[in-house]
Structure formats: structure tokens, C-alpha cells
Write a structure and sequence with these properties.
Blueprint: H1 3-11, H2 20-26, E1 32-36, H3 43-52, E2 57-61, H4 65-77, E3 83-84, H5 91-102, E4 110-113, H6 115-120, H7 122-133, E5 137-142, H8 157-160, H9 164-168, E6 174-178, H10 183-192, E7 198-202, E8 210-216, H11 221-234, E9 241-245, H12 249-261, E10 266-269, H13 275-286, E11 292-295, E12 308-313, H14 320-327, E13 337-343, H15 345-363, H16 369-394, H17 400-407, H18 421-424, E14 432-434, H19 436-449, H20 455-468, H21 479-491, E15 495-501, E16 508-514, H22 519-522, E17 529-531
Parallel strand pairs: 1-6, 1-7, 2-4, 2-5, 3-4, 5-6, 8-13, 9-11, 9-12, 10-11, 12-13
Antiparallel strand pairs: 14-17, 15-16
GO biological process, one term: double-strand break repair via homologous recombination
Keywords: ATP-binding, Helicase, Hydrolase, Nucleotide-binding
Domain Helicase C-terminal: 227-380
Length: 532
């Protein structure tokens, strides 16, 4: 098989991006494949091209209907025959699929579906049984395979049902694809899909055309919004294609309104909008009628737009995986693109509240002790991912690309040197400062305040002690140093945050509590040094 010629015939590309060629060739060998390639590496070709030239069928399983529609539209623009079978598929298309299968026509070799359809639709399963009996079921392709793992950032319970593929079709190969998978997530994918003899394909996570920077977020919100506007103007983003991510629907709407009032052309996108408006918004953005889309994470998975010049995170993402996937939507044409994150501890805390609220809302549907225990374990895991992302944000020395790649399991990656804020700024020599006294005071205050140990109360009490304690008069105890010590104590499990609901209100507050090992600080048994 001359794969390069087939690539030219169907996609008009002269050559493969590695390791596409090897993946495509290996599909003929009949074993399972785990494909972990960064966004923009052409994962779709790895399964589409083998299916197009085959006499059988490949079943492509995707988590989102919008993603399926996007893929099908792109294939049909290339005059490649493709069908789908899921909730939104027309009756006409379903009849066409049935005709192909029962009349042995085999002209459409790609069938897109959802995990819910695979598990619950008996008619579709009957079609698959017929194809297997005729030896025409080539492979199952599971896109966004990280969704099967509870270790990942985007776990979808419906994906767990895909384990049954091995029960129903034990001899049919599976190709699992994802852009981000830490080693635990990779192990989960292999274990849950019951891969035995399989090949893994990876590529460096480092994308040198993405310029990553983190900016401290200003308060109040009107100041921050003005900063975003000034950034867009300063960086000449006004007439370019970009995405601004916000944590909530309300923030999307408000920021879009503010930017539009100040001369920009933006649209908001979130799950609260009707399907019609979401489709129109997406179409306007893809056709460059609108340059900037302001969205929640409901937008973006699988979006194939090559000329996105910037991705701005208006709020803190919940994990490194989420962040990497979202910035991966920039610069798919390999041209320079900016990835700017606004970070603040208040945003991190707001994110933590959102996570806890979401888990609390779904807890009532857990009926057994085992389900409740698993649910609480998943909550702790999700909070841990947020903590890891915080460490990424507050690290002002280590290469951003290096941090991301190391976290995702890549080894020995050198610093980018020119593609992140930490590498391009002058090297700052950090000095180590002993902060045992400051940490003692913070822990002591939390112990004294008990249920009133809110951050504002701790800060006020600390300032008061500094004014009345001789041992601090020769030290410059800045707000920044206080914050650094508080963060150190939290990340190193001396103190913990607890989100509590306010009585007679829909609001919540964060109160600080002590872990057992904080007693060692109160006894002056621990010396604490941090880099300033």
C-alpha cells in the first residue's frame, strides 16, 4: 500500500506528520493501538485514512455530538463518504446505513457514533453483529479516550460502558486516541479497554509555536476587564481569531458585553444558550465573521480551526490537562500564537467552590456506600488536580512547557528558552528565607480563631501581631510574604481549606483548619525555609 499517495489523493497533503505514517501502517497488523499526540498532530488521519481504503467499516466513538458533526462536515468537504448513527442522526441516514449493511454495499467505511449508542441502542448493536459475522468490522476507534479514566480531568461515566466492546467483539482491534494522558490515565485506558498486545505512539507535548504566559489578575472586576481590553489592543488581537475562557456563563456574558461596548466584535458561548444560538455562534466564529468567542469549557473539544492566534484564560482552569487541551486550540497551523492566563488565589478558591458544589449536587444520586465512597474519592482527586495546577501557576522560574510536559509523563525535556514568560524574562536569583516565625503565627492564629479562621480574619490578626511583637520589627513582612507562607502551609498539608455554607444564605466561605502535623510548628519542632 502506497500510503503517501493515498494521503495525497484524499487529503492533498504531500507527507505525513510523524508518527502518523507508522500508526497508519500498523493498522494492518491487527493489534490494539494507544495514540497520544498533542493537539494539531493530525490524530484524525490515523484512523480515517485506513478506513477510507478498507473494504470494511470503522466505528468512531466520540463524546460530543458537536464534535461528530464537525468531523463529518470536514470529511464531506473532501468528498469522503461517511455516516453517523446516534440521537441526532436523520431517519434518512439511518435507512442508508441499514441498506449498506444488509445489501453488502460497503461504500461508507466510517461510521460515527456515541458511547451511549454503543451501550444502549440494540438496533445499532445488531448492525455491528452483522458486520462482525461478515468479517467487515475493521476496528473501533475511541476518540478523547482519556474520558474513560477517573484519574483524568474530563471523566465521562458513559465511556465506562465501552469496556463491553471486549465482551461483545473480543477479536476486533481498538484504537484509543487522546491529546493528553498522564501515566495513570494511560494505564487506566489500557486496563479498562483490556488491551493485551498493543502498540503505544507518543510525541513530545512541547509546541514551540505556543507562547505561554501567566499574569496576576487584578481586582476589582472592572479593572481586570479593562486590562483584558488593553491586552487585546496591545497585542493586536482585535482582528484575529481567538478564544477567551471563563469559569461561568455569567462571566462570559458580562465580559462579552463589556468588550463589545468598547469596540470589539465578540460572542458568548455556553451550555445555557439554545442549540440554535450555539450553532450560529460557532459558525460565525469559524467563518471569521466574529473574531473572538468568549466561552466556558463547553466550547472547544474537537474544534478544527487552524488560525486561532490566541487563547486567553480569564479564570483559572481546574487542571493542567484541561489547560493544555484548551491552549491546544491555538496555532494548529504551526504559526506563532499566544496563550495568556490570568491567575489569582481568589479564582482558585472560586474554582474549588464550584467543584465542591458540583460534587454535592450529584452526591444525592449515589445510593450505595460504595458509590458514596467512590464519589468522595473522586472529589479529593479533582481538588488535588487543582492544587497541582496552582503550583504550576505560582512557579515563576521553571519553564512552563517543561512543567506541563513533565507532569504529563515526558522525560528530559529541556526548557523552551523563548516560548514562555519564565524563560524570556531575566533570570531572577531566588533567595531562601527562613519563615518559621511567620508560619508559627499563622498556625497559632488559626488555632485561636477556630471556626472564624477566614482568610481576612487571619490576615487582620497577623498584621495586629506584627505591630505589637518586637521580633518582627526588623523584618519586612509584606502581604506577598504572608500569602506565600499561607500557600506553603496549605500545599504542604499543615493547614486545610474547608468550604462552609453560610447560614440563611446561598453563599459560602472558606475557613482554615489545622492538620495534625501543624502541632509540630506550634511546638517549634520544624524549621521552614521558602524561596522568595
Amino acid at each position: 500500500m502506497d500510503w503517501k499517495q493515498k494521503l495525497k489523493d484524499f487529503y492533498s497533503y504531500d507527507d505525513f506528520i510523524q508518527p502518523q505514517h507508522k500508526i497508519v501502517k500498523d493498522t494492518r497488523k491487527g493489534y490494539d493501538q494507544l495514540v497520544i499526540l498533542p493537539t494539531g498532530s493530525g490524530k484524525s488521519i490515523c484512523y480515517q485514512l485506513p478506513a477510507i481504503v478498507s473494504s470494511g467499516f470503522s466505528i468512531i466513538i466520540s463524546p460530543l455530538k458537536a464534535l461528530i458533526k464537525d468531523q463529518i462536515d470536514n470529511l464531506r468537504k473532501r468528498d469522503i463518504l461517511v455516516l453517523s448513527f446516534y440521537g441526532d442522526t436523520t431517519k434518512k441516514e439511518k435507512i442508508l446505513l441499514a441498506t449498506e449493511i444488509y445489501n453488502h454495499q460497503n461504500t461508507h467505511h466510517l461510521i460515527y457514533t456515541t458511547p451511549e449508542t454503543i451501550e444502549n441502542n440494540m438496533q445499532f448493536r445488531e448492525y455491528l453483529d452483522v458486520l462482525e459475522y461478515r468479517n467487515k468490522l475493521d476496528r473501533f476507534v475511541i476518540d478523547e479516550a482519556h474520558c474513560i479514566s477517573q484519574w483524568g480531568n474530563n471523566f465521562r461515566p458513559a465511556y465506562l460502558g465501552l469496556q463491553k466492546i471486549r465482551d461483545f467483539y473480543p477479536t476486533v482491534p481498538i484504537m484509543a486516541l487522546t491529546a493528553t494522558a498522564t501515566p495513570p490515565v494511560q494505564d487506566d485506558i489500557v486496563k479498562l479497554l483490556r488491551f493485551s498486545k498493543y502498540k503505544k505512539y507518543t510525541k513530545s507535548y512541547f509546541r514551540k509555536n505556543l507562547d505561554i504566559s501567566i499574569i496576576h489578575k487584578s481586582t476589582p472586576i472592572r479593572v481586570h476587564n479593562r486590562n483584558v481590553l488593553n491586552l487585546i489592543i496591545k497585542e493586536d488581537f482585535r482582528d484575529k481569531s481567538g478564544i477567551i475562557y471563563c469559569q461561568t456563563r455569567k462571566k462570559c456574558e458580562k465580559l462579552s458585553l463589556y468588550l463589545n461596548e468598547n469596540g470589539l466584535n465578540t460572542l458568548a458561548y455556553h451550555a445555557g444558550l439554545s442549540k440554535k444560538i450555539r450553532t450560529e455562534t460557532e459558525t460565525s466564529w469559524k467563518s471569521n465573521e466574529v473574531g473572538i468567542i468568549i466561552a466556558t469549557i463547553a466550547f472547544g473539544m474537537g474544534i478544527d480551526k487552524s488560525d486561532v492566534r490566541f487563547v486567553i484564560h480569564n479564570d483559572t482552569p481546574f487542571s493542567i490537562e484541561s489547560y493544555y487541551q484548551e491552549i491546544g486550540r491555538a496555532g494548529r497551523d504551526n504559526l506563532p500564537s499566544k496563550c495568556i492566563l490570568y491567575y489569582s488565589d481568589a479564582d482558585r478558591l472560586a474554582g474549588k467552590k464550584l467543584i465542591k458544589y458540583s460534587f454535592t449536587q450529584t452526591l444525592e444520586y449515589k445510593t450505595t456506600k460504595q458509590e458514596v465512597k467512590k464519589h468522595k474519592t473522586n472529589l479529593k482527586r479533582t481538588i488535588k488536580l487543582l492544587d497541582i495546577f496552582e503550583e504550576f501557576c505560582i512557579d515563576t522560574n521553571t519553564c512552563r512547557h517543561q512543567q506541563i510536559s513533565t507532569y504529563l509523563g515526558e522525560k528530559n525535556l529541556e526548557s523552551c528558552k523563548t516560548s514562555c514568560d519564565n524563560c524570556i524574562k531575566p533570570l531572577r536569583v531566588l533567595k531562601t528565607v527562613n519563615v518559621s516565625n511567620i508560619c508559627f503565627e499563622i498556625v497559632s492564629i488559626i488555632h485561636t480563631l477556630q471556626d472564624s479562621a477566614y482568610k481576612t480574619n487571619i490576615a487582620a490578626s497577623f498584621k495586629k501581631r506584627c505591630r505589637h511583637t518586637n521580633k518582627y520589627k526588623t523584618q519586612q513582612i509584606t502581604t506577598k510574604r504572608f500569602e506565600k507562607c499561607l500557600t506553603y502551609l496549605r500545599l504542604n498539608k499543615f493547614i486545610k481549606e474547608r468550604i462552609i455554607k453560610l447560614k440563611g444564605s446561598y453563599g459560602s466561605m472558606c475557613v482554615y483548619k489545622l492538620y495534625e502535623k501543624a502541632k509540630q510548628i506550634l511546638k517549634n519542632n520544624i524549621s521552614i525555609d521558602i524561596e522568595i
